[in-house]
């Protein structure tokens, strides 16, 4: 407390009175909304599942913080905007975070940064594999009834690295040393299926096939008859994936890279689009489909050509699919271009939840960090989808939800029979908070 008194400052006076501030508030939390995240996480059970997936090799006689508590503390800090492990040194005494981890304000403090860092660096490849399966299990459990069909959107993003992180590679496209984390989301709902941290290069066809093979095996074990459509851009369009999908009743629609043969085949379509643009003076799109087989493909596949001409110039796109029905225009504009939402899902994961904080030296530790952020994504997405449905924040971004509902200060009083959080009377979202809590059936 004496140290916190020294950290004081002063503002401009009001009506002749000095305005001073310090950090001697004591039992006060800045993030009372973490209690709602605790209830959300408990309902879906993701943290308990993650804890069971991790093999604890510590000598139990020296253990002060169980695996489930370390996971809870780290994930909730990420949700509330404290993505740096160093933040644990201050937040370990926060009564809101202590309560979210099942500790009273009078109990021992939570884990410090060194403990958190040792925990992150203790992960082995088998732990990471089991954790990846937990996310698929959570995705399956998020459905009350088996869906008729799923759209699995796959994409990666650059995660710039600084220093000597293992497996950091120079990527010519992004012009930086980076990792390339890979994500699979369900395209209609935005639910996370799984995430994997990868070295800074695009995955090969065999890697992509192997990933989908494991994921779809788990999904089909739960729902044998579910229809599955894979969507992705051109660097996921590989012969290995085409042939595997054809033999396992999986549909796909993927971007296709241009080559000289495809450009020649699209010449007539582009000429037609140019004619329409010159005739009507407005952007023109013309579609064409044809069977096409590259030398490495196992058979001829349906390729859709989209030729667009506008004031910006010519634009030619190619899409390959094993879908046999629907017009080419519908398949391109509605089915394929629908994957644009994938960028928003990644934005929530990467920007709102700061999943680019992969600053550990060991690659496995950074893999685990991405998975911690993925757990935070699952909890936040579930909260928005379930608790915020029908409210003004039903479609809000994660950082907006955090700002409005989580970053609320409260005084904490530990009484003989209860722990009481006193929120400010001026809280502008008090009615919404009550609605959310009642929806979760936490009060009568």
> Roughly what is the average pLDDT, rounded to an integer?
94
How large, in whole angstroms, is the Cα Rg? Answer: 26 Å
Strand content: 15-25%
Shape: globular
- Main beta-sheet annotation: 8 strands, mixed
Structural class: alpha+beta
Count the domains. Answer: 2
Low-confidence stretches: none
Distance between the ends: 39 Å
Q: Biggest sheet, strands in spatial order?
A: 9-8-4-10-11-14-13-12
The total beta strand count reads 16
Q: Counting H and I runs of at least 4 residues, what is the number of helices?
A: 17
Helix content: 40-55%
Would you mind describing this structure in some detail?
The chain has helices at residues 2-6, 34-44, 46-53, 67-79, 88-91, 95-100, 113-121, 125-141, 205-222, 239-247, 260-265, 267-280, 328-336, 341-352, 363-387, 398-406, 430-439; strands at residues 9-14, 17-21, 28-29, 149-156, 159-160, 169-171, 176-179, 182-186, 192-196, 227-232, 251-255, 284-292, 301-310, 313-321, 410-414, 419-422. It starts with a helix and ends in a 5-residue tail after the last helix. The strands form four sheets. The chain has an eight-stranded mixed sheet, with helices on both faces. The chain has a three-stranded antiparallel sheet with strand order 3-15-16. The protein contains 17 helices and 16 strands. The protein has two domains: 2-122 and 362-439, no CATH class; 125-255 and 322-352, Nucleotidyltransferase, domain 5, CATH 3.30.420. Helix 4 packs across helix 15, helix 8 packs across helix 9 and helix 8 packs parallel to helix 15. Strand 6 (169-171) and strand 7 (176-179) form a beta hairpin.
């Amino acid at each position: 407390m004496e140290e916190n008194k020294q950290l004081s400052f002063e503002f401009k006076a009001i009506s002749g009175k000095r305005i001073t501030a310090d950090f001697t508030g004591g039992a006060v939390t800045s993030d009372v909304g973490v209690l709602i995240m605790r209830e959300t996480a408990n309902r879906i059970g993701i943290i308990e599942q993650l804890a069971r997936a991790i093999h604890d090799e510590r000598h139990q006689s020296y253990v002060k913080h169980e695996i489930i508590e370390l996971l809870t503390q780290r994930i909730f800090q990420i949700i509330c905007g404290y993505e740096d492990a160093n933040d644990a040194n201050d937040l370990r005494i926060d009564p809101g975070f202590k309560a979210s981890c099942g500790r009273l304000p009078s109990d021992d403090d939570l884990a410090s940064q060194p403990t958190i860092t040792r925990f992150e660096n203790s992960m082995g490849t088998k732990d990471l594999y089991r954790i990846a399966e937990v996310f698929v299990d959570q995705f399956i459990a998020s459905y009350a009834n088996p869906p008729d069909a799923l759209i699995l959107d796959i994409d990666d993003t650059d995660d710039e690295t600084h220093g000597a992180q293992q497996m950091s590679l120079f990527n010519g496209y992004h012009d930086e040393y980076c990792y390339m984390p890979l994500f699979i989301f369900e395209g209609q709902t935005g639910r996370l299926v799984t995430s994997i941290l990868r070295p800074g290069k695009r995955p090969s066809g065999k890697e992509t096939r192997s990933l989908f093979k494991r994921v779809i095996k788990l999904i089909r074990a739960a729902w044998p008859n579910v229809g599955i459509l894979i969507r992705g851009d051109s660097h996921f369009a590989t012969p290995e994936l085409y042939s595997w999908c054809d033999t396992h009743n999986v549909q796909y629609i993927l971007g296709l890279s241009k080559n000289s043969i495809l450009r020649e085949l699209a010449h007539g379509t582009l000429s037609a689009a140019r004619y329409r643009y010159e005739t009507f003076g407005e952007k023109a799109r013309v579609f064409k489909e044809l069977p096409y087989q590259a030398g490495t493909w196992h058979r001829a596949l349906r390729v859709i050509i989209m030729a667009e001409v506008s004031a910006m110039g010519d634009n030619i796109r190619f899409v390959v699919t094993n879908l046999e029905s629907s017009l080419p225009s519908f398949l391109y504009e509605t089915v394929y271009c629908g994957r644009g939402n994938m960028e928003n899902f990644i934005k929530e994961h990467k920007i709102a939840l700061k999943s680019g904080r992969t600053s550990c030296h060991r690659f496995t530790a950074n893999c685990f960090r991405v998975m911690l952020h993925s757990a935070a994504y699952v909890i936040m997405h579930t909260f928005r989808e379930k608790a915020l449905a029908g409210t003004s924040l039903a479609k809000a971004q994660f950082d907006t939800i955090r700002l409005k509902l989580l970053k609320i200060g409260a005084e904490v009083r530990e009484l003989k029979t209860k722990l009481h959080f006193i929120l400010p009377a001026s809280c502008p979202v008090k009615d919404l908070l009550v609605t959310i809590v009642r929806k979760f059936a936490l009060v009568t």
